[in-house]
Amino acid sequence: MTSASSSYTTEFRHEFAAQMGSLLLRRFLWFTGLMGTLGVVSTAGAVLLVLAERSPAAQGAVVISGDMMGSLAVYVIWTVMYVFAFVYAVQRRPDAATLVIFSIVIVSLDGLMNIAMRVLGLPFASGLFGFMLSYTTAAIFLPWTVKQSLIPAAIVLGLSALFKMTPIEGGPTMGRLYQVLLSPILVMPGMLISWWRHSSRLRESQFYFLQRRYGEVRRELTDARRIHEAMFPTPKSTGEVRFTYRYQPMRQIGGDYLHFSTCPNKDGSSETVTVVLLDVTGHGIPAALTVNRLYGELARLFGEDPSISPGEVLMLLNRYVRLTMATHSVYVTGLVAKIDPSDDTLTFANAGHPPAFHIRADGSIDQLDSTTYLLGAVGDDLFEASERVVEFGPGDRLIAYTDGATEAMDARGTMFGIRGIQGILASSGARADGDWPMAILKAVDQHRDGPPDDDTLVIEIFRIFSERRRREDRCDTEGSRASGDPEPVSL
Prior knowledge:
Elements: H1 2-52, H2 66-92, H3 96-120, H4 127-141, H5 146-164, H6 173-182, H7 184-230, E1 241-248, E2 256-264, E3 271-280, H8 284-304, H9 310-324, E4 332-340, E5 345-351, E6 356-359, E7 365-368, E8 388-391, E9 397-401, H10 403-406, H11 417-427, H12 436-447, E10 456-463, H13 467-482
Antiparallel strand pairs: 1-10, 2-3, 3-4, 4-5, 5-8, 6-7, 6-9, 9-10
Helix pairs in contact: 1-2, 1-3, 1-4, 2-3, 3-4, 3-5, 4-5, 4-7, 5-6, 5-7, 8-9, 11-12
């Protein structure tokens, strides 16, 4: 969980930095272009003011004092600095880190030039007020963080305080001290603007990032569900033993799984069917990833030995889960049922799974309870599958499900429970083959208050009368009639 969160944070940080880099270049050009233009206009205005002043002693000639020359020189340097920064950014397209440093340097130099003009007593000197205007403009244009905005403010205010508290600056000491203490107020607007704009950009970027990521996750989950459902078998509607199922994951993908395998029986007279029903602890993507691993393990087991017994399947799965998943507190319940129509048997083993129900052709119902621990709970030395064999003749069916059905709760917190399943099976009477999964899911949905809070999988395995069995039954009937047995009477 920590690595996933770290990955998300790193990805967002890189994306946000890339966005700010692109934004910073545009805003830097706007800022330096504006300030450079303002510098040209200010310098030109200062020159015009100088030219408008004529000295009578010099018979109308233009006289430029040393202080005025100093102010003009500062204005020219100030203008050239911003124009150079603009041209440099246009031609070189520096990275974000360079632009941040460059912007901090020129804003700091801007403030130092204003302070120098004030200290030297040059005309048109604005001191900290001039710096405040430049600094606030920079905060409006440049996507500074609060930390970045503090650097030029600290440099300029620090040097200003140094000059204020030296004999260079005249006036009462207490007055100068008050000026130093109140000077941070001048940069507060710029800092607040930087904080507000940076926070707004951060929130907007997070929103769009999460929105895009949500869309990506939705698409990935759709693809994952397609892959996940492709692992499930196609319902079998041919042959003597058939099955169908209904799956309702809590989310798009879940931790329930159904495996189906067939192989010829020993004498080759019919097809043996094996069904494995698994339920992984947990929900959603983690459970689905575990199912993915179990799918591969089951494919290997049945690929190596198609006639493997239910007990062997559980023994090998328990070892696999114990060694690879139990260390992460992931366990699995499982039911393995193998039906051989040649000898009318159902062999099953149940590892901590909810009991299955065997519905006989005459309507009687038997409960097939758990025979061993859930998978991964104990090692090989304590795990015994204890498979069992029951008669499974034509017309019989097996109903199995995961605990999402029995643990569904109504508004009062009452679970549907095993008795709920029993009630559906006992009260619904005879149903067409394959109708039980839908009937049980419908009853569970009616009982449940709100959306599903667990994955639910219901399967039905049923056996029909084969043509061979029909011929045998006819032969037995004809033989009994030939021997003098009374014919059955139709009522």
